[in-house]
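Summary for the steering committee. One of the milestones for this cycle was to obtain a three-dimensional model of the protein with zinc ion bound, which we needed before selecting residues for the alanine scan. The sequence and ligand used are listed below.
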Amino acid sequence: MHRDFPLVGAVVLLIVLPLVLLNVSHASAAPDRNAVLDLAFPVAGSSTYDDTYTANRDGGDRRHQATDIFGVKGQAVHAVVSGEICFAPGIDEPMPGYGYMLRICRDGVTYSYIHLNNDTPGTDDGQGGHERAYAPGIRVGVQVTRGQLIGWLGDSGNAEDTPPHLHFSIFDTAFEDPELERAPWRQHYRNPYPSLVAAEARGEVPGATSGAIRLGHRGEAVQAWQEALNRALDAGLGTDGVFGPATDAATRAFQEARGLEVDGIVGPATLAAIETVTGTPVAAAGDDPQQVSDGTFPGRLLRLTDPMLRGEDVREWQARMRERGWRGADGAPLEVDGWFGPDSDRAARLFQEEKGLTVDGVIGPSTWAATFD
Ligand SMILES: [Zn+2]
């Protein structure tokens, strides 16, 4: 019986393959506006959205042909694909009436981000300026990479009287949907909704906490946050720059008091809220807040693999090794890049040898514990 399978399989293929090919060519003649595209999710952190592609707008004169992603003012907005910023009004001239918006262009497709933030934190004053709409360095002609921070969600333009949201649309000249709209250019809008759902399902909600600090972080941004909490809540925190349980509890108390999501994560919304309370802006952490370890093995064996392992656990181990004075093969301090590459492997083996551990280049519980000893 087993021997028959390849033959049966081949026969089935011969019958099915032409049908599949026919189907593909038919599909390209009438493209599906709901096709799933390969995108990263544009809004960091929690947000809500529905499929409103065909919803009427302007009293039925047009359809929405976009997805509105609702969040809070100041929520980070990221590049869904790598490409070029091809539209970014309001930098060298006043904000236009339609508000702050960004477009990323790539291969004839335009991804638009509309209603970006135009308010100073905690207000609806319209005085935020482009610095609170677009991330530093974002302007026309700049190349951005998928997942990169490009701006902040808001309510500029004709969204002033709506809850803050990102109007996200995909305009693809290679796509035409003659059934939906009469105005010719409107036939090129794809429905972002299925692609957004797919990105979320894959977990590709980029940098949900990028530039944010939380339990386990340390550094200047944490210290600034502790000082701000002390001003806002009279929290009496030590300002040691280590985001420990007391800072976490005070952060959550602050978030609860301000009606924010109580997650202990100090992101743009929480920073904006504390600026409103204290009248003093608090600098956000960089892209990569420093981790502090409590020495607990994170659970994954780290070793040189192909492709290389990457993650916060690798970064944390590298940072600690660097602190201990370990260097790469070139003699420079061990790079803390989160990739377990040849330099990490080399340092791991030498370290194991020094500590009298099994020299296998594998960071398991005992090597981890020795590193953080
Ligand atoms: Zn919209």
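Key point for the committee: Residues 1-30 form one domain.
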